[in-house]
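The methods section describes the discrete structure representation at length, but only in general terms. Each protein is reduced to its one-letter sequence and a matching series of backbone shape codes. I believe one specimen quoted in the main text would settle the matter. An entry of this sort, consisting of the sequence and the corresponding backbone structure tokens, reads as follows.
***
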Amino acid sequence: MWFNCDDTCGNKSGVLDIDVKAGSPTLGEFVLRHQFDRPSSLPDSNNEGIAVAPQSECQDGVKSFFWTDDADQDGFSLRTDKIPCGGCF
């Protein structure tokens, strides 16, 4: 599951997974799989929703990643950048 945290935590995004390892102290809980800092092109604003392009959109090893900004900073509510393709981080 992807997550995004707004300007309260630096607009970091990441991927959570459910721990299914037998005997793990976090069995059945969400665990952080990978975390991304916000791209330099993304202002530290009140960014909220995210969307990830499907694997079929990969070109040159990257695909689009979109954010919505409910503060409408600089007159824009939708921003985009690129993230690495692949299913596992």
Residues 13 and 27 are 23 Å apart (CA to CA). The two ends are 12 Å apart (CA to CA). The chain has a mean pLDDT of 87.
